């Protein structure tokens, strides 16, 4: 079963955009995300409608972030993507009159709702600024590791 990785992909693109000084073209973002520029444009169009990004056409154009990274949460981005399903698993509905199936589906439905509520609460607490800060720290540690290796040679 294929998983929906749009949220992860969009977060990836937004962090690249946040780290970049100017607009990023769909082609540049596609290269960072290992995807096609058409997929980037289609995805960014939804984010533009939500006011999270903007685009400029022409020479020196591209995509830029149009929101405050401290104010935008993963839940906001999930909503901008159309609130894709968070689970790749679901109930079996081959025999809705079956009492066993009803019991199983009721238990699973309750569990899915509870877990999705917890996930959305967590998404609501995580901001783009927090992700950008984590990335910046990882990048600095990576550069320090490279410098240390070069000095050891």
From TrEMBL:
CC terms in the record's Gene Ontology section: cytosol
Molecular-function annotations in GO: DNA-binding transcription factor activity
InterPro entries reported in the protein's UniProt record: Tscrpt_reg_Rrf2 (IPR000944), WH-like_DNA-bd_sf (IPR036388), WH_DNA-bd_sf (IPR036390)
Protein name: Rrf2 family transcriptional regulator
TM helices/strands, residue ranges: none
């Amino acid at each position: 079963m294929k998983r929906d990785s749009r949220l992860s992909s969009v977060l990836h693109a937004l962090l690249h955009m946040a780290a970049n000084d100017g607009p990023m073209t769909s082609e540049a973002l596609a290269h960072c995300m290992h995807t096609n520029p058409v997929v980037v444009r289609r995805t960014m169009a939804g984010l533009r409608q939500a006011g999270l990004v903007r685009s400029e056409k022409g020479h020196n154009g591209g995509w830029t972030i149009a929101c405050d990274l401290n104010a935008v949460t993963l839940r906001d981005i999930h909503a901008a993507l159309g609130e894709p399903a968070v689970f790749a698993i679901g109930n079996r509905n081959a025999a809705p009159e079956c009492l066993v199936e009803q019991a199983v589906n009721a238990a699973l439905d309750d569990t899915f709702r509870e877990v999705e509520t917890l996930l959305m609460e967590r998404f609501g607490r995580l901001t783009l600024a927090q992700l950008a800060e984590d990335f910046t720290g990882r990048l600095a540690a990576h550069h320090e590791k490279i410098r240390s290796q070069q000095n050891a040679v």
